[in-house]
């Protein structure tokens, strides 16, 4: 890991030449000028897969807010979208978007299906970081030429760098005929990739990091539908205990990494946010929040108890879609609905689930 990082830093010396940067956009939450760079998977992809590979997610995707295909695997807005709204900034454009993107408030490198491994396979976390370096280098060149559409060097330094990835790695570890111990043994290599990404970003001036843990994997209708189980496999809320325990172990190691890097990078702020507890609370207290069956997909096939069929996904003409007047936590068996994302975002903004307990807009005054 270390030697690879050294070689990459040498490469960056070629990609990031010293240039005189003209005044341009900087992070300022008060006027909607904050900037976020997001790295992740489908939980925060705002259209990367659609832009990159041409995939279309037709209605009913997007029905709750956009009323059209928008590249999100959701009926409306993602948690990331609500966080952007809180900062009075535009929704993040995918880095791969070629048609009228808006990068004044940062960029989104997240792509549906992304994982940390294999590291050289699109669109892994490492590839996303490479894309960011190219984006940063080009932005600084254009800023130096007088463009006001991109951040300058100070803007990149003050921006927030969000990482929300690992769910697909963990899902793959448990889905490859591995027993619990074998699946858990793969977690350190996932954490090592996240560490490498943060170190590389730090090496080029990034100083504000917001890291999301993974959610309760065992509560997803997809996993409950496809995994052999009996009553002893399930917890009190109908979730698969082994997968949730695996998610908690991943999160424990991720939290440990954040503590380690806080000690190493005294010039940086690294916030770990406990997404698992936020989402599990939704499952455990679904009735209190007004949700229907907490482990059943709104958009899927097969009906109760999970309404999930791997061969008939949301968007297929044969799928069954819940009424817009009802509230579900799961949209398609894997991803959350806008109604659920609204609550997840509000819990994030409360700072009660973050370590250290900083408000989401802490970086605006950095």
What does it look like?
The structure is a single chain. This protein has 366 residues and is of the alpha/beta class. It has a six-stranded mixed β-sheet with strand order 2-1-3-4-5-8. The chain starts with a helix and ends in an 11-residue tail after the last strand. The relative contact order is 0.14. The N terminus is likely disordered. Belongs to the 'GDSL' lipolytic enzyme family. InterPro entries: GDSL (IPR001087), SGNH_hydro_sf (IPR036514), SGNH_plant_lipase-like (IPR035669). This is GDSL esterase/lipase LIP-4. It holds the Pfam family Lipase_GDSL.
Provide a brief overview of the structure:
The chain has 366 residues and is α/β, with parallel strands linked by helices. The chain has helices spanning 2-15, 48-53, 79-86, 125-144, 153-158, 167-174, 180-184, 187-203, 221-226, 241-264, 275-284, 286-289, 338-349, and strands at residues 36-40, 106-108, 160-164, 208-212, 269-273, 299-300, 320-321, 354-355. This is GDSL esterase/lipase LIP-4.
Number of helices: 13
User: Unreliable stretches, pLDDT < 50, 5 or more residues?
Assistant: 1-5, 7-27
Task: Give me the count of strands.
Answer: 8
Give the spatial strand order of the biggest sheet: 2-1-3-4-5-8
Helix content: 25-40%
* SSE pattern, N- to C-terminal: HEHHEHHEHHHEHHEHHEEHE
Overall pLDDT score: 91
Proportion of residues in β-strands: 5-15%
Distance between the first and last residues' Cα: 31 Å
Radius of gyration: 20 Å
Note the overall shape.
globular
**Would you tell me the structural class of the helices and strands?**
alpha/beta
